[in-house]
Automatic annotation (TrEMBL):
Sections of the chain in a coiled coil: none
Keywords: Hydrolase, Metal-binding, Metalloprotease, Protease, Zinc
Record protein name field: Archaemetzincin-2
Species the sequence originates in: Apiospora kogelbergensis
PANTHER family according to UniProt: ARCHAEMETZINCIN, ARCHAEMETZINCIN-2
GO BP, one annotated term: proteolysis
Cofactor dependence: Zn(2+)
């Protein structure tokens, strides 16, 4: 058994490297104001701010700066700031423009659900028919870093995606796409010699040409063109769909400059696609991932300092005390009980089940993210958040599965006001929705107890529920 990091101190503010690259974190006042439609600071209660878009007790705007600062600090125990480590997306683009709840709500181009269009569909991985049986070889990693000793795994079940997304986007109807998709042959030839063509067919007779190219980084032999897959998805979007996610097992690319692309959303078209390929645990060894410091342990201060030191940044950041009973600390303690090495040294059946759930945990977070874009959520810069952009698998695994207070405010409004036609000023109804959503997510996480992300997330959710309920009781 390897020595386990104790994660004694948590990093809840951006790293020292963030300062080096010029990332300017939003101030406490800006972060709190970004959760409201008015753009002003809401009720000053950490639990309530994190629990709904506008809180749930006494309303107070224009509060004293020390009170704002304390509430913002308390929130960090549940919602830490973005880490901004070397090679992270925000390190490359530190000036990315924030999307507040106010700017999101005022955007006239975003899609709104209707009584006839309120279903989120998830389409299963297309079948590879015998006429294109050669596509099965495209699924096999070619990288010498791939661990050949890993067991053969079947792609995660569609029912698991539907169950998780039904809780994550609580209030929407989440269903499997009703048609079976198939990859079929395509007779047309590419005269340039750059591409090979296959078809993506639906049961009702539609078929779209999909380009395939040789993968430039050689991790997989061939990749499918992401734009072609999304065009096919647009053509099959059901009339009652608010949005649709399509899963593919093949590696994807977007344009000639890409090595690969794990997923993409066309927000205005209400479709997104996610590839399972790069998330497969068989690639972990080659990617040299630090599996001991994936979320929630990605906020371990010793780990963050080590990452900064590798980039020759040795200046530390100030320590912020985090209670042992806080959601983040509780999540780390729970997730740390799940040991990757112990699961892998178990029987082949146990190891295979563990790896398949691990694979699913990575994928479903990305599917949730891409569907978030279909709900017109932009990349988040306010907190470490499920809607934060990433540059690769290492950063992807450091991001949380939850929505931060700003992004959560948008979903609350989308469901309670636009979907359920509720009163936008009814904070009690919004708080009730938040608790229902948290509870639904906590219950669905119970399905996958063998993976740290779900175990940690469930404990984080239970801790958040307790905080919000205690706050409501104090204000009642």
């Amino acid at each position: 058994m390897t020595q386990q990091c104790p994660h004694r101190t948590l990093q809840v503010e951006p790293s020292a490297y963030a300062h080096e690259v010029g990332f300017e974190w939003q101030s406490p006042t800006q972060r709190l104001a970004a959760t409201t439609r008015s753009g002003r600071v809401p009720i000053l209660s950490g639990a309530s701010i994190g629990g709904s878009s506008s809180g749930g007790g006494r309303r107070r705007e224009g509060a004293d700066e020390p009170v704002v600062t304390q509430v913002a600090k308390d929130l960090l125990a549940s919602f830490p700031g973005p880490l901004v480590l070397p090679t992270d997306e925000l390190a490359w683009d530190p000036g990315y423009e924030p999307q507040s709840f106010q700017s999101w709500s005022r955007d006239k181009t975003r899609n709104r659900p209707t009584a006839a269009r309120k279903t989120l569909y998830v389409a299963a991985v297309p079948e590879i028919t015998e006429e294109v049986g050669f596509m099965r070889e495209w699924l096999r990693p070619q990288s010498p870093g791939a661990a050949c000793s890993y067991p053969e795994l079947k792609s995660p079940d569609l029912d698991d995606y539907v169950a998780y997304l039904g809780a994550f986007y609580h209030g929407f109807i989440v269903k499997p796409f009703p048609q079976k998709l198939r990859f079929v042959s395509w007779d047309q030839r590419d005269r340039s010699g750059k591409f090979q063509y296959v078809g993506l067919a639906t049961e009702d007779g539609n078929c779209t040409r999909i380009r395939a190219r040789t993968a430039p980084d050689k991790v997989f032999s061939k990749q499918l063109n992401l734009a072609d897959v999304l065009d096919a998805e647009i053509s099959m979007l059901p009339k009652d769909a608010y949005a649709m996610a399509l899963l593919v097992d093949h590696d994807l690319y977007e344009d000639e400059e890409d090595d690969f692309c794990c997923g993409r959303a066309y927000g205005l078209n209400r479709v997104c696609v996610v590839s399972t390929a790069r998330y497969h645990p068989i690639l972990d060894d080659g990617a040299k991932l630090d599996l001991e410091h994936v979320w929630p342990a990605s906020h371990c201060k010793a780990f963050v300092n080590g990452q900064c030191a590798e980039a020759d940044v040795h200046r530390g950041t100030r320590a912020v005390a985090v209670s042992a009973k806080s959601p983040m600390r509780a999540a780390i303690q729970a997730a740390s009980q799940i040991r990757h090495d112990e699961n892998m040294s178990s029987s082949s059946a146990v190891a295979a089940a563990y790896l398949r759930t691990l694979w699913f945990s990575r994928l479903v977070r990305t599917v949730s993210h891409e569907l978030g874009h279909n709900l017109y959520l932009d990349h988040c810069v306010y907190y470490a958040c499920m809607m934060q952009s990433t540059t690769g698998m290492a950063e992807d695994l450091r991001q949380p599965p939850y929505l931060c207070p700003v992004c959560l405010a948008k979903i609350v409004h989308k469901v309670v006001v636009e979907l359920q036609r509720g009163d936008g000023e009814n904070t009690a109804k919004k708080d009730a929705y938040i608790l229902e959503r948290y509870e639904a997510l906590a219950q669905v996480c119970e399905r996958w107890k063998e993976v740290g992300l779900f175990v940690g997330f469930q404990v984080w959710l239970r801790s958040r529920i307790e905080l919000v309920r205690n706050e409501r009781n104090q204000n009642s």
